[in-house]
Each structure stands twice: as C-alpha cells, then as structure tokens.
Specification:
There is one protein chain. The chain has 52 residues and is mainly α. Helix content is 44%, strand content 0%. It is globular, with a radius of gyration of 11 Å. The N and C termini lie close together (10 Å).
C-alpha cells in the first residue's frame, strides 16, 4: 500500500465511494444531493497532507 497526498486526478476514484458515504447520511452531515464538483471542492479544502 502506498500513502501519498491527494492529487486532483484521484477524484474520479474517490467520488464513487465518497458519494455513497455522503448519501447514507450516517457519517458526515453533508448534502446528499451534492454534485461531484461540489463534493470535490469540500474534499480539496482539507489540509493538503490528507493521504489517499
């Protein structure tokens, strides 16, 4: 396993599972109707050291 900082090109792999988590509304109080672009903006607002 390789841990490294998130890169914009990672988003297409992250969005499918992040969307399921957000839509379940069990973990994060995020809008379940978010578009990919809206969710990506929040994800990228995190500290740049967040690993993927």
């Amino acid at each position: 396993m390789e841990l490294r900082p998130y890169r914009k090109e990672d988003w297409d792999a992250i969005w499918p599972f992040f969307r399921e988590i957000v839509q379940a509304q069990e973990t994060f109080p995020y809008d379940p109707e978010w578009t990919s672009q809206e969710a990506q903006a929040v994800w990228e607002a995190a500290e740049p050291w967040w690993p993927v």
